[in-house]
Specification:
- Its EC number is 3.5.1.49.
- One of its GO terms (molecular function) is formamidase activity.
- It comes from Providencia rustigianii.
- Keywords: Hydrolase.
- The structure is a single chain.
- With 358 residues, the chain is an alpha/beta fold.
- The protein has one domain: 4-Layer Sandwich (Nitrilase/N-carbamoyl-D-aminoacid amidohydrolase), CATH 3.60.110.10.
- It contains 12 helices and 15 strands.
- The strands form 3 sheets. Strands 6-5-4-3-1-15 form a 6-stranded mixed sheet.
- Helix 1 packs parallel to helix 4 and helix 7 packs parallel to helix 8.
- The relative contact order is 0.15.
Length: 358
């Protein structure tokens, strides 16, 4: 039996990095913030899960400044495991919590490729799951998706749900990761759910997508349609560099914890200073709902043979980074984005607006 437990999602101030060594300043702050957040939150129920938002370690300068991938890989991307995850492992051990977090990474098996990886650390400090982001914040994020390397990816790791939407079974439930833009594509949530996920990490999104309710709507929709918890702490204020005079509120707040029926069970609207969001996860209640509801345990009723028709014709090109390096913003817009919109119009999926006519 898994007793109900508390989950804390940090909403930290972040300093964008110039070099990999700058990450340690962010980890210093995360350690300080977590001590206060965990102590205060444990006045309710014991906290078993600590979640760090996307960007908490490195910021987003690789995206905002359109840095060359080779430059960031050399002195910005981390290794997993590495010194940074070792420190987070010590934090997990000292607080007896699982940690879910994210970082831009490099991998010796994929030289010259930058990934965006979500990972889980257990209370013993071990990395027990790594998830490679499937859907980046295009066109400004150039992290490679497994789909960008598809043919070689399935040769190395197989063609299974675990190869693309991995889930790890733990003493606090089955954990999975659906970062940022991934949560805007129902396929990513469904892939995790059909692989058994019960608690899903979904962080972060920037403004304007928080201020127009997109973040909340997508978090609640993915939780409801898949009957799993979504833990979605957003980024806080960010200094572009460690020496920048004042921070920018890139996230706009709206940090959430959503239960398996799409109900908000924890929220933090504020980003004026470092803060956190807290909620309670009841795995046994979720499992009971899944196995006893007649209607709203939706997964049992998926019409898979018909649904496959939706994806019969390829849409986004696979293997993009097997054939060419990860480019800059302009290159992506010219070679991918514009062509994708044209493809949707040609297939009569999109209809041009009168605003498009010159």
């Amino acid at each position: 039996m898994i007793k109900p437990y508390g989950v804390v999602g940090l909403v930290p101030t972040t300093w964008g990095i110039k070099t990999r060594s700058d990450i340690m300043k962010n980890i210093d702050h995360l350690e300080e913030l977590s001590h206060g957040a965990l102590w205060l939150s444990s006045l309710d129920l014991p906290v078993r899960l600590l979640v760090l938002p996307e960007g908490a370690l490195q910021g987003f300068n690789d995206e905002a400044l359109d840095l060359p991938i080779a430059e960031f890989l050399n002195d910005g991307a981390i290794d997993i495991p590495g010194p940074e995850t070792d420190r987070l492992g010590e934090l997990a051990k000292s607080q007896n919590v699982f940690i879910m977090a994210q970082a831009k990474t490099r991998d010796p098996d994929w030289p010259g490729i930058m990934f965006n990886v979500g990972f889980v650390i257990d209370p013993k400090g071990n990395i027990i799951l790594k998830h490679h982001k499937m859907s980046s914040l295009l066109p400004c994020e150039r992290s490679a998706s497994p789909h960008d390397l598809y043919d070689e990816w399935i040769k190395k790791y197989g063609r299974s749900l675990q190869s693309f939407w991995p889930v790890v079974d733990t003493e606090i439930g089955r954990l999975g990761i659906m970062m940022a833009m991934e949560g805007n594509f129902p396929e990513n949530g469904r892939g995790l759910a059909l692989n058994g996920a019960e608690v899903v990490y979904r962080a972060s999104l920037p403004t304007p997508f928080t201020e127009n309710d997109l973040f909340e709507i997508s978090n609640r929709a993915r939780a409801l349609e898949n009957n799993f918890y979504v833990v979605a702490p957003n980024i806080g204020s960010m200094y572009m560099f460690p020496t920048t005079q004042a921070p920018i509120d890139c996230g706009g707040g709206r940090s959430l914890i959503v239960d398996y029926k799409g109900k908000i069970v924890g929220k933090q609207e504020d980003t004026n200073g470092s803060t956190y969001v807290y909620g309670v996860i009841d795995i046994e209640a979720m499992r009971y709902h899944r196995s006893n509801a007649s209607v709203s345990n939706w997964l049992k009723d998926i019409r898979t043979e018909c649904a496959q028709l939706i994806y019969e014709n390829p849409i986004y090109p696979k293997n993009t980074y097997l054939h060419e390096p990860q480019g800059n913003h302009k290159h992506y817009r010219e070679t991918i984005l514009n062509k994708q919109i044209e493809k949707m119009i040609e297939r009569n999926v999109f209809v041009p607006s009168v605003y498009d006519k010159k």
